[in-house]
Amino acid sequence: MGRVMNALADLWGYLGHSENWGGEHGILQHTRAHLWISLVAIAISTALAVPPAVWLAHRHRWPLLSAAIVNIGRAVPSFAIIVAVFPLSIRYGFGLGFWPTCVALAALGIPPIYTNAYTGVAHAAPEIVEAARGIGMTDVQVLTKVELPSALPLILTGVRVSAVQIVATATLGAVVGYECLGTPIVQGLVRGDAGRGQLLGGALLVIVVALAVDAALGMLVPRAAPWNERVR
């Protein structure tokens, strides 16, 4: 019980002091940087995953092969990708931590988005698709007006899952010099007992941000596809 109370006291000692929140290296700046790199990674993941998944699902091609290739991203550790991209980023002048971390996060986010997009389009109600073709809709119209609207909630769910994973994993950026919410965690580990408040505070903030992102996207899914609610 005493250790828990000491840990809570250290946590409050870090989060309860206003000087830790402001400034170039404060919590607010770290939070903004954390959200920014997460947003960029989510956008890249979505741009890379959705178009091929939608096209292949619409054509009903390579369901197992394409999913297996994309899922390689789940098997490769994010930190290994950062280590691989880091020297290339320095060599070609892209800086230290942002792009190596962003590439790793984008690779992490692709599989759930791709899988959900493919599943959503491929499993659009066949009777509705056939009815759309029966009234003379072109192939593109069937995709854009029938299959995509039907798949949109599942696609957004994939984005939601990826976003939470990316926000949680973006802490790795601190290891390669990108200041984010992983920075107080790394600094706390280096300082040992003296940095316990930083360590706990950084971890708590990452949890809070991840839950906030999940809740925000969770509210977006039904609003983005209100026709599903009307159908129910």
Topology:
Layout: H1 2-15, H2 27-59, H3 63-70, H4 72-75, H5 78-91, H6 98-122, H7 126-134, H8 139-169, H9 182-191, H10 196-224, H11 226-231
Features:
232 residues, MetI-like fold, 11 helices, 79% helix
Summarize the structure.
With 232 residues, the chain is mainly α. The protein contains 11 helices and no strands. The protein has a domain at 33-182: MetI-like fold (Orthogonal Bundle).
Main sheet properties: none
The name of the CATH superfamily of the domain at 33-182 reads MetI-like
* CATH secondary-structure class of the domain at 33-182: Mainly Alpha
**H-E order:** HHHHHHHHHHH
Shape: elongated
Please count the helical segments. 11
Structural class, from secondary structure content?
Answer: mainly alpha
Share of β-strand residues: under 5%
Number of strands: 0
Low-confidence stretches: none
Helix content: over 70%
CATH architectural category of the domain at 33-182: Orthogonal Bundle
Mean pLDDT across every amino acid position: 87
The end-to-end span amounts to 51 Å
Rg, Cα atoms, Å: 21 Å
CATH topology of the domain at 33-182: MetI-like fold
Description:
This protein is mainly α. The protein has a domain at 33-182: MetI-like fold (Orthogonal Bundle), CATH 1.10.3720. It is built from eleven helices and no strands. Helix 1 crosses helix 10 (196-224) and helix 5 crosses helix 6 (98-122).
